[in-house]
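User: I'm writing a tutorial on reading structure tokens. Could you give me a worked example: one chain, its sequence, then its tokens, then a sentence or two explaining what the tokens reveal?
Assistant: Sure. Here is the example chain.
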Amino acid sequence: MALTPQDISRIAHLARLELSPQEGERMLTRLNGFFDIVEQMRAVDTTGMEPLAHPVAMVQDITLRLRDDVVSESNQREANQRSAPAVENGLFLVPKVIE
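And here are its predicted structure tokens:
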């Protein structure tokens, strides 16, 4: 998949970026280079390969160090909601946006 200068202009417009012609050419080259790398990675046969939880797991056994899921702070809901314009049953009330 290769991008064209028109694609770069459209992407820049959608992102609200103003690119000079030189910047547009540089972006075109860089993005097409990125897509070339992606195509090379897609060409690799990964049939039967298990996904890794961590890249080092390929060369050595690794144990993920996860901390215990414990409560570390007390419930401060009321203190946090004092400055809210409207609260009901412990929930923030907000105006209806979509009808």
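What the tokens reveal: The radius of gyration is 25 Å. The longest strand covers residues 87-88.
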